[in-house]
Every structure is written in C-alpha cells, then in structure tokens.
Amino acid sequence: MMRLNYFVLNDQYIEGLKKPVKDHVKVNSSSKVTFKSRGYPYCHNVVKPYWFSWGGLPITMEFARKHDLANKWCDITVIDQKGKEWLLPLRHHKRGSSVYIGRPHEFLVVNDLKPGDPIVFELIASGDFPKINFYKLN
C-alpha cells in the first residue's frame, strides 16, 4: 500500500504570493509522480471518495490562511489541464475550520478524477478574484 502525502506548503515570498522553495514535489516516496512548480504557491491533496457526495473540494486550511483564502466567500476561477476555466464558489465554514471549493461534481467528472488520484492546486492570483491552476498527477 502506498502512503501519500496530503499537502505541501512553501514559504518564500515573491510579488505578494509565496514561491515554492523546491521546484518540484514528489507525491510519495515510492512513486515517480512529480509536480514541477512554475514559481507560484501550491498545495496538493489526494481525491477522497466523500468529495463526490459532500459537494466540496477542500483546500488545506494552512495553505488557505497563508494565502488569504481562509475568510473568502467569493467565486474562484479553476483552470484545468485542458485550459477550461471553471467559475466555482470558494467557501469556508463559519467556525473557520475548513475552506473548500463548492459544487465540484461536474468538475470532478469532466476531469476524470477518482478516489486516490493525486492533485495539485497552484494559486496564480489572489485577492478579490482568486484564480488557481488545477493539475491531476498521473
């Protein structure tokens, strides 16, 4: 059984966003799957079965706090690997316990995501109109 890392955070500042310290991330120790950063902050996660029924795509709270996404209640543009832009709601629980992208069902299906797939969110714009690139790692 492979053990996957659930997220990676990076702490170097550049132009108001944080730049990764490493230029790539290995998803797990026994895999050759890597993500090569383009210089933007990113986090990665592994698709969970409950994402399909719950109606949310979680963003790690630590990443959300560091990049001013934690208290947002707005739309976020998610750009998939085919270049399609998805305008989805960015939400947070009132107690500040989690941040998530809402209504992701069609996004998950169109991008052929299945439980266990490693994914990366790369924040390319923050502020009032956040924008992220989405990568499914194969």
Secondary structure blueprint with pairings:
Blueprint: E1 12-14, E2 17-19, E3 24-26, E4 34-36, E5 42-46, H1 51-54, E6 56-59, H2 61-66, E7 74-79, E8 85-92, E9 99-102, H3 105-110, E10 118-125, E11 131-136
Parallel strand pairs: 7-11
Antiparallel strand pairs: 1-2, 3-4, 5-10, 6-9, 7-8, 8-9, 10-11
Mean pLDDT across every amino acid position: 79
Give a quick account of the main beta sheet: strands, pairing sense, barrel closure.
7 strands, mixed
From the coordinates shown, what is the CATH architecture?
Beta Barrel
What is the rounded distance between the termini?
17 Å
CATH superfamily: DNA-binding pseudobarrel domain
Alpha carbon gyration radius: 14 Å
The multimeric state of the shown protein is: single chain
Looking across the biggest beta sheet, what order are the strands in? 5-10-11-7-8-9-6
In words, what does this structure look like?
- There is one protein chain.
- With 138 residues, the protein is mainly beta.
- It has a single domain, classed as DNA-binding pseudobarrel domain (At1g16640 B3 domain).
- Helices cover 12% and strands 38% of the residues.
- The strands form three sheets. A seven-stranded mixed sheet has the order 5-10-11-7-8-9-6. It has a two-stranded antiparallel ribbon with strand order 1-2. It has a two-stranded antiparallel ribbon with strand order 3-4.
- β10 and β11 form a beta hairpin.
- The longest helix is centred in the middle third of the chain and has 6 residues.
- The protein is globular and about 30 Å long.
- The N terminus is likely disordered.
